[in-house]
Design brief:
The chain is an alpha/beta fold. It has two domains: 10-206, L-asparaginase, N-terminal domain (Rossmann fold, 3-Layer(aba) Sandwich); 220-287, Rossmann fold. It has eight helices and twelve strands. An eight-stranded mixed sheet has the order 3-2-4-5-1-6-9-10. Helix 5 runs parallel beside helix 7 (261-271) and helix 7 (261-271) packs across helix 8 (278-287). It binds aspartic acid (ASP). Aspartic acid binds at residues 39-40, 56, 86-88, 119-121, 144, 146.
Length: 288
């Protein structure tokens, strides 16, 4: 069986496809589906010197898989091209479509795990969304890369070797290969194709989540729900405390705690599928 040591979470991994699949490596080869959405990991530049100038979302999933023949040593693979976009083109509709496909695959007894290849700009939002709404204990891994496979020193082999929780991970640097970090630290590492785990996510997620993509058809923004204000910080780390800098009770605002504004947007959109009550939204922000 294909089981990671901490199966019940959705991770955003700052590492390559091959390293991600090493997560799944057991005696029997796991059956893994790669859902390709585009991004730099599927990018192509004009020359090997073009590590930062290239076209994202060029290489189709089958070519991506064929480009790393060693993958078939560690898993039975098949790919599906879900989108071919840069990740800034992800919309709420696309998030729902992707999550429904991930959910369906995790329910398939012939599938042991799912890898989503994704552009890095909004990777953290998709990983957090899947973490909130996919009810499965099978591993779902979101991966990206900072350089296209055509570049010299492409980070298709490993990208800082770290495994991060989808809830906590954020893109912090947009030109270096150590682009991703979590203010509470990575959950583990991949070294020489082996995974090493050190932490478990503490917040509610996947099997412990009250949100399920199978019963969500549409995400709505705050405005269409009567406008709730969620207060988040543009500073990278730390958190917003209720009623500290602002009288949140008086204004009936919600605080995002340690979630950055882009993740607060995702959690608010998911929470609003159930309730638009500010106290209920605040409960969700404390728990997820
Ligand atoms: N613009 C690209 C994207 O987010 C960047 C990347 O993948 O690194 O799709």
């Amino acid at each position: 069986m294909f089981r990671s040591p901490f199966p019940r979470f959705i991770a955003a991994l700052a590492l390559s496809l091959s390293a991600a699949l090493a997560l799944a490596q057991t005696a029997a080869k796991p059956r893994v589906v790669i859902l390709a959405t585009g991004g730099t990991i599927a990018g192509a530049g004009a020359t090997a010197a073009n590590s930062a100038t290239y076209q994202a979302a060029k290489v189709p999933v089958d070519k991506l898989i064929a480009g790393v023949p060693e993958l078939t040593d560690v898993a039975h693979l098949r790919g599906e091209q879900v989108f071919k976009i840069s990740s800034y083109s992800f919309t709420n509709e696309k998030l729902v479509q992707l999550a429904k496909r991930v959910s369906a695959l995790t329910k398939d007894s012939d599938v042991d795990g799912v890898v989503v290849t994704h552009g890095t700009d909004t990777l953290e939002e998709t990983a957090f969304f899947l973490n909130l709404v996919v009810h499965s204990d099978k591993p779902v891994v979101v991966v990206g890369s900072m350089r296209p496979g055509t570049a010299m020193s492409a980070d298709g082999m490993a990208m800082n070797d770290e495994i991060h929780a989808g809830r906590d991970v954020a893109k912090r640097v947009n030109i270096k290969t150590n682009a991703f970090g979590s203010q509470w630290g990575p959950l583990g590492m991949v070294v020489e194709g082996q995974t090493y785990w050190f932490r478990n996510p503490a917040k509610r997620h996947t099997m412990g989540s009250e949100f399920d993509i199978d019963s969500i058809d549409k995400l709505r923004g705050l405005r269409s729900q009567g406008l709730q204000v969620v207060r988040s910080s543009r500073v990278g780390d730390g958190f917003v405390l209720r009623n500290s800098e602002q009288p949140d009770d008086k204004y009936d605002w919600v605080v995002a705690h340690d979630l950055n504004p882009q993740k607060a947007k995702i959690l608010a959109a998911v929470a609003l599928t159930k309730s638009s009550d500010s106290k209920e939204l605040q409960r969700v922000f404390w728990q997820y």
